[in-house]
Amino acid sequence: MAGNSQRKGAIRKSKKGATVGSGGQRRRSLEGKGATPPANQRPYHPAAKRAAAAAKKAATSARPTGRAGRKPEDGPELVLGRNPVVECLRARVPATALYVAVGTENDERLSESVQLAADAGISILEVPRGDLDRMSSNGLHQGLGLQVPAYRYQHPQDLLESAVSSGTPPLLVALDNISDPRNLGAVIRSVAAFGGHGVVIPQRRSASVTAVAWRTSAGAAARLPVARATNLTRTLKEWAAAGLQVVGLDAGGDTSLDEFDGSTPTVVVVGSEGKGLSRLVRENCDSILSIPMAGPVESLNASVAAGVVLADIARRRRA
Predict the structure, then answer these.
(1) Is the distance from CB of 175 to CB of 281 less than 8 angstroms?
(2) What is the pTM of this model?
(3) H or E segment to which residue 11 belongs
(4) 2-28, pLDDT tens digit by residue?
(5) Which of 119, 75, 117 is nearest to 97 (CA)?
(6) 30, 120, 149, 180: least CB-packed within 10 angstroms?
(7) Distance of CA 250 to the CA centre of its chain
C-alpha cells in the first residue's frame, strides 16, 4: 500500500532518494581514504620489493664476519661465466656441481662445459635463471656456474713428514704473504714441475687456493699438497730445527744463485709482490738469494723468480 512507506522501519524500493533505515552506511562508504602512498611503501609494488631487498643486503653486509672481525671459514666457491667455467673444467678442478640456467643460449663453451662435467662425474643441474642471479653478486653469470668445494689444506708438520719420507731431499716453498691467487697457482705449478714436495702459506693475509689458483696451476693443485701455517715464522724455525736450510729470495740478496747449492734439504721463501720478505721471515733465513740478471731488469715477478730458482735446484740435483 502506498501509505505503508511512511511507516517506521519501512524500506522504499524506488531508486530515487535515500534508502530509509540504511543508517548512512552508503554515505560513509563514499568518504576518501587519503593520499596514495609512495610506490616503495606499497607492499606488492616492485619498487617496494627492491627497497626491501636492498635493506636486507645492507643489513647482511653490516653483520660481523666472525670473532674480532675475522673472515669466516673457507666454504664452497661459485665460479661464474662461460670462459672461467670451461677453463676450470679443463684444468680438472674438483667441482661438485655445474649449474645451467633454463633457456640459456647454447654455444661451444657451454657444450664443452657440459661434456667435461659429464665425463668427470660432476652433477649437472638445470635451474631457473633467477636462482643463478641470487647466487651471484652482480648477475654476470652468462647462464653458467660451477661450484668448487673448499680446498683441504695439510698441516705443516704433516707436509714436512711426507717430504722427508719421499726418498729425496725435501724441497719445499713458503710464500710470505703472496696476495695474488694467480701467483700462488703459478708457484704450485712450478713446484710440481721441478720435483718439489709442497707449498706452505700463512693462514692470514695471503691468497688461498681458490678456483683462480686451481686454474693457474693447470691441475697441479690436485697433485701437490699445500699447507697452511698459523705462524709462518714459527713454522720456518721448526723446519730449520729439523735440518732444512731456509733460503729467502730478494733482488738484493747476499748470495748469488750461481753459488748456491740446493742439493740438501731446502725451503725456498718467496716474498710478497710489493714488499718482498717481511722482517721476521728475513731474520730467520739462513741466506738470501739473488738471481743474476743479464739485462737492465731489476727484479722478476714473485712466481717467475720462484720458477727460476726451482729450475736451477732441479738441475743441480740431477747433476
Answers:
(1) no
(2) 0.66
(3) none
(4) 555 566 655 555 555 555 555 555 555
(5) 117
(6) 30
(7) 29
